[in-house]
Amino acid sequence: MAGQYGGQPIFIIDPSKERTKGRDALSMNIAAAKAVANIVRTTLGPKGMDKMMVNVLGDIVLTNDGATILKEMDIEHPTAKMIVEVARTQEDIAGDGTTSAVIIAGKLLENAQEMIETGVHPTVIVNGYRLATAKSVEILEGIATSVTKDDRETLKKIAETSITGKASEAFSDFLAEIAVEAVLGVEENGKVNVDDDILITQDAGGKITDTELVKGVVLKKWRINQNMPKRIENAKIALIDAPIELGKTGNKSKIQIQSADQMTAFVDEEESSFREMVDAIASSGANVVFCSKGIDDHAVHYFQKKGIYATRRVNESTMKNISRATGARLVRNIHEVEESDLGAAGLVEQDGESEEGMTYVKDCPNAKTMTIVIHGGTEHVTDSVERVLDDALRVVKVVVEEGKMVAGGGASEIEVAIGLRNYAASVGGREQLAISAFADAIEEVPKAIVENAGFDTIDTLLNLRAKHGTIKNAGFDVFTGEVVDMFKNGVVDPLKVKTQAVKSASEAATMVLRVDEVLRAQRKEMMDVKPEHNIHSYDGMSAPQLSDRR
To answer: pTM for the whole thing?
Structure first.
């Protein structure tokens, strides 16, 4: 970008930067957003397709989870990254509905582009979208139904709705039960901390139905001596955050031993130190020891003689999890461990042999931590189940905390779209065009569900709108092709998932619409080119691309 002064050009912006402005900038950004939406669109709904992603190492991820797909993709376009943020925000706040949010955002921008081409200013569209967002949330809250944590059957239906359409759908009833049990097990004062209080670990082998919920902690550690007891009932657990070995001197030192008696005395003194450390732990009543540091072989020998189950080098986060589950306190001075520092568990045992084993700390009386141990034929299966359970846990958490749900199967979206069209007529001005466009974007969700199931979208949408005159919860049953009451069919979603999808999509769309110029620095490895040859580089592509590499 340059001006003229005395016949000489003044460069304000580095001429090597790409500069796109006006309609070109907007079209480029909207094309990128639509490209992201089109990628995940086919994954929506119970009949959605899967995506296979292979990284540079050849590792495979096979899923139809929108958040996972967008996270695994190597996206470079700045606007496409903004749309990916929509999915990330949706996942963090609501736990599900990422694909819906991205589809709505893409359609909002597509509709906005059509309005801009007819002469509507982006600022007017942004104002209309904001009015529509507020009205959509109001409509959704108006049709929401209350649910309590005691209504386990409804919570299970919510979890099953989240699981339906994913790879583990055949086990939805089983996995939903685990998700509900886990969330209610750690719920405290109406709050659930899924990330810290519900742990998920994989153990490839067996069947998915072997997956179990442990009231406690499962760690990929094993007893450090095969002669130690493999099973400890009524476990008293000590958490030692210090090495159970002799400390080294601060400076280099030498010991001169001139006789066998001196050697014997030195060895006896060393073993006596280990005996004192082990005796201090044993005298507290502990019969299980988890140590975050190393345990010397001499100490292992004495633990084995005392009948104590011990394992070493347990990481910090696992130590904290065991503490929350058992009530044990971390002890840094071995000689000061007391009975009050110990935690309690009904059972501590090693499952499996040698280095393939896992240690179960379960049946904890006041456990604040639950662990789900996922079993499956291969790692790909267990990875898939983990993603499914993560979504199920989060939607149940949201409902337990918020206490509101709405009908699924596109029912709530149709109701919102109908309400927005009625609202648009009362607003007047050009904003009503944006509000109507917002309603069309919301309907893109049930449209994609119908399309992915192989049914006719036009006839089905007309049928859905007609049914909503009498049945507010009418949605599309992808298995029969009929429009039915979703509540009666047990297809329900958390209110938070729907409201957050609308908010996230609207915010992303308005951010893109407010951009009228894009300045982008060239990559260092690229050859210098004249700016006028580089301005329209995005528009020269034959189709919307996520990367601007040439």
So the answer is: 0.80
